[in-house]
Amino acid sequence: MPTLRFHAIKESLAYKPVYIEENVKRSELFGKNVFNEKTMRQYLTKDAFVGVMNAIQHGKKIDRNIADQVASAMKDWALSKGVTHYTHWFQPLTGSTAEKHDAFFETTKDGNSIEKFEGGQLVQQEPDASSFPSGGIRNTFEARGYTAWDPSSPAFIYETTLCIPTIFVAYTGEALDYKTPLLRALHAVDDAATAICKYFDKNVKKVSSSLGWEQEYFLVDKMLAASRPDLVLTGRTLLGHSSAKGQQLDDHYFGSIPNRALNFMRELENECMLLGIPVKTRHNEVAPNQFEVAPIYEEANLAVDHNSLLMDIMGRVASRHNFKVLLHEKPFAGVNGSGKHNNWSLSTDTGINLLGPGKTPMSNLQFLTFFVNTIKGVHTHEALLRAAIASASNDHRLGANEAPPAIMSIFIGEQLTKVLEELEGVTKGKLSPQEKTELKLNVIGKIPDVLLDNTDRNRTSPFAFTGNKFEFRAVGSTANCGNPMTVLNTIVAKQLRDFKTEVDLLIDKKGLKKDEAIFNVLRENIKSCRDILFEGNGYGEAWEKEAKKRGLSNNKTTPEALKSKVSKESIALFEEMGVMSKIETQARYEIEMEAYIKHIQIESRVLGDVSRNHIVPTAVKYQNILIENVKGLKEIFEEKYNAVSKEQINLIEEISNHIEGINVNVTKMIGERKKANVINDLEKKAHKYCFNVKPLLDDIRYHCDKLELLVDDELWPLTKYREMLFTR
Ligand code: ADP
Ligand code: MG
C-alpha cells in the first residue's frame, strides 16, 4: 500500500480545526502594527512629522537629520512592541517579497550593548544583489544593489520584525524590483492627469491611482498537499483525473464557508487588520475549496505592497490551520482557476473619482475625458497590456473558458456605448450654442442615471467598466500587481499627455473654446479606438475571428505575448514617460522569458519523474496482479477460461498501452529538453519549451490519468483530486 497517500489522508481526517476567537473590534485592531500617521504624530517631533508628510504627499526628499529622528522614533515604537529586528522589505523580480533581518542590538566599546537604529539604516542598505534576477543589468562580480526607503508606504511590524518598504535598484540606478517603475508610473499619471483636471478645476494639485484587488486562492490540507510532489515543486497538479464531482452542481460559489477555512480567514483577517490591510470581503469561489479575499481599495502603491504582503502572510497563517494555500492560476485541471481582478481608478486630492460620474455636465465631461482616454490608451497599447499579465501559470487560465481570453477588449455596457456613439456625431470645429446645450442636457447630462443602470456586467471581458472604475480581470492570482499597474498607469499617462497637447493646439491655433476643443478631440479618439470595445461573449470562437479582423492581438502564450514588451513602441513609451529605460525594459523581458523557460523545465522534470518513477511502477504492479489472476483462472477453468478472463486480459493490454504512452513521451520530452537547453537565443529557447516541450506534458498526463481510472485504488500512490478538493 502506498504509505504517503494513506498516511496523509489519515492525518487530514484526524485534524481538529483551531477556533479563532474574535473579541476585539476590527476598527480597534486596524493599523496597530503600522507606523502610520496617527503613530507618527505620537512619536515624531513636529519637524520630523512635517518632513515625512511632505515626502509622502509631495515626494519631497527627507534630509539626514529628519531621517535620524524618524529612525529613532520608529525604533522606540518598535521596541515598545517587543520587536528585536528590522529589515528593508522589497519586491524583487522573483515574484515574492524579500527581507534580510538585522537586530537593533549592537555592542559598545566598553563591552556593553544597546539597541540602535539610525537614519542611515532606515534610508538605505546594500544587500548583495547577485542572487536576484537582474536580466543581465550587471555582472555578478560587481553585483551591488541597494534598497532605499519608500516613505509613501508605511513601515510595519510583522511578528518581531520592523519592516521598512523599500525600492530595490542596481548600483548603476536601474530598477531591480516591481516598486520602482510603479512609483515612476504613478508619478507620470499624476502629472498628466492633474494637468487635465486643471481644465475643470484649478484647485486640483494631485491625482492618485487607486487599486482594489480581489485575490482568489485554494486551500488544500497541508498533509495532502505535501504528499503530492507536483504541488510541492510546481504549485499545481501536473496530473490527476478529475473528481466525479467537481463544480458542476455550482454548490460552492457563495455557499457557507467551511469551518476550517473560516477560521483560517478569521486569523488572516486579524493579521491584516494589525498590518493595516483593509480586507473586507471573503467568500467561496466557484471551484471546491476555492476562496476569495478582497480589501477596500487604496492608493495603488500601498495596495500593491499590501497584496504582496498578504500573499506572504496567507502561507504562514494557512500553515497554522494545517492548510497549504495555492495561489497558482490553475492548480487543478477541470475546475476553475484563480485570478486577481485589479479594480482601478484615478482620484483627485479634492476628493473626486475621475472615473465616476459627476453631478454637473462639466464634471461629467471630465469623467468622459478620463473614460475615453483610458479606452484609447488601452487600445493603442493592448498588446503591451496583455504582456503585463503574461506568465507560464497564467497561460493555463486565459482563454480557458473560465477567464478572459488572451485578447484584450473593453466592456462598457450598452448605455455608455450609446453616449460614445452620440459623441462621435459632434460637429467638427466650433459648436453652435444649440448643439452645446443639447450635449450638456441630453448626452453628458444624462450620464449619472445611465451608470446606475449599468448593471449588466459582462463576466467574459478582460477589462470592464463597472460604474466607477475599470476592472482588469486578466491578472493572474500569483502576479505581483505592480507589473500590470505600472503598465496601465503608464499607458493612461501617455494618452492623457497626448490628449492635452491636442486640446491645447485646438484652443491656441483654431481658437476653439476649451469645452469645444475637448469635445473635438474626444470625438476623434472615440472613432480611432472603437475596435477595442466589445460587449459580446469573449469566450466564443466568433470573437476570436472578429478580433482578428479588428487587428487586435491574440497572443495565447507567454513567449508570444512578451515580445510586445520590447517592441519599439513599448520601449519608446516607457522611456518617454520616464518609467523605464530601454535597458530596464529589456532586462525585464529577459527575466520573464527566463522565468517562463524555467517553469516549464521544472514542470517537465517533475512530471517525467512522477510518471516514470511513481505511476509506471504502480501500473506494472497492478498488471502483475492481473496476470496472476489470469493464470489462476486458467488453472481452475478449462472451457470457460476465455470467457472469464476476457476483461482482465483487455485490462492488461490497456495498461501496457498506457505504460508505453508514458515512456515514449517521457523519452521524447527529455530529448526536446536537451535540444532546447543548448539554444542560447532566449526567444528560440522559450519557443522550443512552449511548442515542443509543453505539449508533451499533456500527452503524458493523458496516459497517467487514464491509468488512475484503471489501477486498484489501494495501490495508487498520488493523493487524488477528490481527496484534495473535498477534504475540509
Ligand atoms: P465585485 O467586482 O466582486 O462585484 P466590487 O465591485 O464591489 O466587487 O469591488 C471589488 C473591488 O473593487 C473592491 O476591492 C473594491 O474596494 C474595489 N473598488 C471599488 N471602487 C473602486 C474604485 N473607485 N477604484 C478602485 N477600486 C475600487
Ligand atoms: Mg470584481
UniProtKB/TrEMBL annotation:
Any idea where the GS catalytic domain is? 178-615
Q: Where is the GS beta-grasp domain?
A: 84-173
Q: Which InterPro entries does the record cross-reference, listed alphabetically?
A: Gln-synt_C, Gln_synt_N, Gln_synth/guanido_kin_cat_dom, Gln_synth_cat_dom, Gln_synth_gly_rich_site, GS_Type-3, GSIII_N
Looking up SUPFAM superfamilies in the UniProt record yields: Glutamine synthetase/guanido kinase
> Of which family is this protein a member?
Belongs to the glutamine synthetase family.
List the protein's name: Glutamine synthetase III
Q: Which organism is it from?
A: Hyunsoonleella aestuarii
Q: Taxonomy-wise, where does this protein's organism fall, top ranks first?
A: Bacteria, Pseudomonadati, Bacteroidota, Flavobacteriia, Flavobacteriales
